[in-house]
Design a protein that fits this description.
Two copies of one chain form a homodimer. Helix content of chain A is 60%, strand content 8%. Chain A has helices at residues 21-30, 42-45, 48-53, 72-82, 91-121, 128-150, 162-174, 176-179, 183-193, 196-211, and strands at residues 4-8, 36-40, 61-64, 67-70. Chain A has a four-stranded mixed β-sheet.
Chain lengths: 216, 216
């Protein structure tokens, strides 16, 4: 059964692959799965039909027969558990890869989203600039810890996993200026983006943006 | 093999069960597991021995033979996948329960932590009070969505699961003033706290605080 995911009808990132459907597309491509995409407008995201699928009115969602899931982390774990390519077979290595999924979403991404929220919604407040610097310092603490752990390794724990997929996605969301202060992290992001599955997923989401008339 | 978790030697919450080891203790109690606890000082958390276990220098960690995990969500999922009591057996219900684990940690908790960070670290900034109100409005949006989904149900998706364990824990972290604006959510938190496994876990973490001389 081919699953259906939802994505923004008009992504606010201009097709740069920062919306969370990109993460799910990438996971589907890594595991060689076909999928359908249903585009949702900002208005429709807050209406009852979509809220029945996603109680917090966001994208992506994942529908496969009568199973409906939301939350990117959960969707990717669901895909990774059922198809080869995103989690090692060894039980302990698998638990460690899942740990990195949670670390990406719960420890590294929150200060990055905090900075984004301040930049988007609090920039015009009197505190906007000062608070932006504060959030950037918090991000640097996390990235220096991540950089120390990654060291010279190619991926976070042996082979590429769903943990790397999410960590690379989270670092992409932050963007180069701060990530580039940690050369092993920017090389890590580049390795992720060079994967054929990443490229296919990126092109697919960019095509939505182009067709939507959002491009030049 | 009895696992060992780490907890704060002196929890900053004064034994109120808000530190993240409480979530893991609760999961271990729900599944009837014995466990050992190793207490870690704030200083030791940032030293090489602990950073080898937890690259971001936090608690809890989980050690079971030669397997070492960090991230509360990952530890609880590991426990829940291996022992009865925290995830339904039906594959689809299981995927939905895991979705609620991610929703608790990635969608509901971030604005709650944002408020906490502002209250703790930015209160003396000129923007402290104004920003606190802003974070509280964001929390209310999430809680109203969660409240609408829960409705009159006892738990988020059928039987009590690891998703409820984490959601109740996240709402506990926020505390009554805002949660009580949503009566079905405060009743939901109370149901979680009334569970025998919760009580055992709560007493165990309180005992650490009492022995540590932190109490009166």
């Amino acid at each position: 059964m081919i699953p259906t995911i939802t994505a923004f009808a008009r992504s606010p990132d201009g097709g740069r692959g920062l919306a969370r459907d990109m993460r799910v597309r990438w996971a589907l491509e890594e595991t060689g799965q076909r999928y359908e995409v249903r585009l949702v407008s900002f208005k429709a995201m807050k209406e009852p039909d979509h809220l029945a699928l996603h109680p917090f009115g966001q994208i992506p969602t994942y529908e496969e027969g009568d199973l409906a899931l939301f939350e990117t982390g959960s969707i990717i774990l669901h895909i990774a558990e059922r198809h080869e390519g995103l989690l090692p077979r060894d039980e302990k290595a698998r638990a460690r890869a899942i740990t990195w999924m949670f670390a990406a979403l719960n420890t590294v991404e929150p200060p990055i989203l905090d900075r984004e929220t301040t930049a988007l919604s609090e920039r015009r407040e009197t505190w906007g600039e000062a608070r932006l610097r504060l959030t950037e310092d918090r991000i640097r603490v996390r990235l220096s810890q991540l950089s120390a752990r990654l060291g010279d390794a190619e991926w976070l724990d042996g082979a590429f996993s769903a943990g790397d997929l999410l960590m690379v996605s989270v670092l992409m969301r932050l963007g180069p200026p701060i990530v580039d202060e940690f050369p092993n992290l920017s090389a890590y992001v580049a390795r992720g983006q060079a994967r054929p599955a990443y490229r296919r997923a990126f092109e697919a989401q960019l095509e939505v943006f182009r067709r939507g008339g959002g491009g030049g």
